[in-house]
Amino acid sequence: MLTLPWPSCYRVDVNIPSSGTEIAAIELGAGVIKRATRLADGRELIYYDDRDTTLGTERSVDTRALDPRPATAVMRRDVLTGDWISIAAARQNRAFLPPAHLDPLAPQTATNASEIPSMYDVAVFENKSPSFGPALSVQTDAAPAADDAPRDLDDLLAPGLDRTRSSVGRCEVVCFSPAQEGSFGTQTRSRARTVIEAWADRTAALSALPGVQQVFPFENRGEQIGVTLRHPHGQIYAYPYITPRTTLLLASIEREGADLFERILASEASGPRVVLEAEHWIAYVPFAARWPVEVHMSPRRHVPDFAATSSAERDELADVYPRVLRSIDALYPTPTPYIAAWHQAPVHAGRDTIRMHLEITSPRRAADKLKYLAGSEAAMGAWIGDIPPETSAARLREVIER
């Protein structure tokens, strides 16, 4: 029995099993194998094995003695904007830049009672301190029961002061690799393809959960962005509402026309801001870029989300997406912090008009300078760009060509 130092949200009494158990396997696209199991407190854990994996069929059992899962957070409606704000106090206890020997995303060892019991290629699990979910009927003094979920989208739009609802949904962590350093852009092509298959599988599964309105895969990279774990990973949020950004997008489509994305791609493809072109994907710096480094990437045909992409589109994405990320890293001598956000159509709205697309943004405006959101941007949402988009695109093209 081991007792290890750990963040306060964990009670760590660990038996590291000497042998594992075989988990039922499901074959997905590109030869990726999916194996679903549970952590000690009931959270779902899913292993995705590479097509060329060297792992066996067994996985160790999570034998930690964990505290009960936190109550589902509560959402409060900002009556001035209509936005719903999730108040998730349990997030205060999440790990913050732990030392390498206590990496909570590395495979468990006799000295590290991490979140993942076994060696893995790619692993996805429910966040221990989620902003949304779990959808449990838990009543606490600080929050209503989780069964006080939004009834529907009309319920979320209803007027009134001091409105609350339970933050039902799901927050998942996507570990790109058991390695303790890196990002999506540092993965092999085979590993990138496995992650893409996992994104597609999780998008389909989360979209089917009751009450989920939108699914959002993303990667935060770099401490300057606010990353609290250095391990190469991303996250997936399943929201109980349509996000404010997507609500604005739906309004833009209503104003500009249902073929908005098709016209954007036609315009960008013939202009000076293209960064990379492939058979199924095109990457470009947008016409009105906000950030010093900003790249959008979209499929050439209309696709609402990852679950709807073809095998050929996923195969090619495993090549072009890491190339774009590596070009951003090559702009300066040290790795560039960024947010890589995969915008997908909501589950029940805009499926025929919102095309899934990637938006990579970085505040890095020079080797040793960051863009900070000042009063106009942070308070009023009135942006001022520092670098002309055409200049940014030319620099990225030059790096890719090298």
Automatic annotation (TrEMBL):
<dbReference type="GO" id="GO:0008270">
    <property type="term" value="F:zinc ion binding"/>
</dbReference>
<keyword id="KW-0548">Nucleotidyltransferase</keyword>
<keyword id="KW-0119">Carbohydrate metabolism</keyword>
<dbReference type="InterPro" id="IPR001937">
    <property type="entry name" value="GalP_UDPtransf1"/>
</dbReference>
<comment type="similarity">
    <text>Belongs to the galactose-1-phosphate uridylyltransferase type 1 family.</text>
</comment>
<dbReference type="GO" id="GO:0005737">
    <property type="term" value="C:cytoplasm"/>
</dbReference>
<dbReference type="InterPro" id="IPR005849">
    <property type="entry name" value="GalP_Utransf_N"/>
</dbReference>
<keyword id="KW-0862">Zinc</keyword>
<protein>
    <recommendedName>
        <fullName>Galactose-1-phosphate uridylyltransferase</fullName>
        <ecNumber>2.7.7.12</ecNumber>
    </recommendedName>
</protein>
<dbReference type="InterPro" id="IPR036265">
    <property type="entry name" value="HIT-like_sf"/>
</dbReference>
<dbReference type="Pfam" id="PF01087">
    <property type="entry name" value="GalP_UDP_transf"/>
</dbReference>
<dbReference type="GO" id="GO:0033499">
    <property type="term" value="P:galactose catabolic process via UDP-galactose, Leloir pathway"/>
</dbReference>
<comment type="pathway">
    <text>Carbohydrate metabolism; galactose metabolism.</text>
</comment>
<dbReference type="GO" id="GO:0008108">
    <property type="term" value="F:UDP-glucose:hexose-1-phosphate uridylyltransferase activity"/>
</dbReference>
<keyword id="KW-0808">Transferase</keyword>
<keyword id="KW-0479">Metal-binding</keyword>
<keyword id="KW-0299">Galactose metabolism</keyword>
<feature type="domain" description="Galactose-1-phosphate uridyl transferase C-terminal">
    <location>
        <begin position="269"/>
        <end position="399"/>
    </location>
</feature>
<dbReference type="InterPro" id="IPR019779">
    <property type="entry name" value="GalP_UDPtransf1_His-AS"/>
</dbReference>
<dbReference type="InterPro" id="IPR005850">
    <property type="entry name" value="GalP_Utransf_C"/>
</dbReference>
<feature type="active site" description="Tele-UMP-histidine intermediate">
    <location>
        <position position="233"/>
    </location>
</feature>
<feature type="domain" description="Galactose-1-phosphate uridyl transferase N-terminal">
    <location>
        <begin position="104"/>
        <end position="242"/>
    </location>
</feature>
<dbReference type="Pfam" id="PF02744">
    <property type="entry name" value="GalP_UDP_tr_C"/>
</dbReference>
